[in-house]
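Annotated sample (chain length 214).
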Amino acid sequence: MFKAVVFDLDGTLLDTLEDLADAGNRVLSDAGLPVHPVDSYRYFVGDGLVTLISRILPESMTDEQVQRMAMIFRDVYAKNWNAKTKLYKGVDSLLNSLQRKELAMNVLSNKPHDFTEICVREFLGKWTFSHVLGNREGLAKKPDPAGALEISDKLGIAPSEIVYVGDTATDMETAVAAGMYPVGALWGFRTADELKDSGAALLAKRPEDVLELF
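Output written by the structure step:
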């Protein structure tokens, strides 16, 4: 019997793709570098801010340049993070149902912790989340299971009793490493094959499909 749910944020609860792409392309354009189609950002995001920047920049960029551009991205994204972002269709119904069942809901993201908290507060504030964790100093980012296990420990619920819902291989690998039940969100940024190959035990076509587990 599952007692809690851990959700990824971008591509799972929130469709943040356009705002992330707009910020990334603004950084590139201002630097005189080629920009990318919005859809390409589906494969750039998911593994943290610095990795995102390293993926959108030319390979010739040094680590120092990547770090500097990451700081610039933070400033740009801080001005447009909520311009086009929205809940995926069906997420509100899923969260309403889970809350009625009094299941502990949590968020674990590779997005910087401050932006993770802001997005949850702005777009998901009507629901109660036990723990909201983004990428922060001193904690390894996903697919390292440290964040997922921290949530499990704080809840006092065994990982085997927790469902993990995410939309990328990184999420499925995190769930498997933590000993949680991995559910792939097909409405998100990546493909069914990626999710299945990285360990998804269930592929959910719609947010409501997650309720089958409860």
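Annotation: The mean pLDDT is 97.
Annotation: The longest helix spans residues 63-80.
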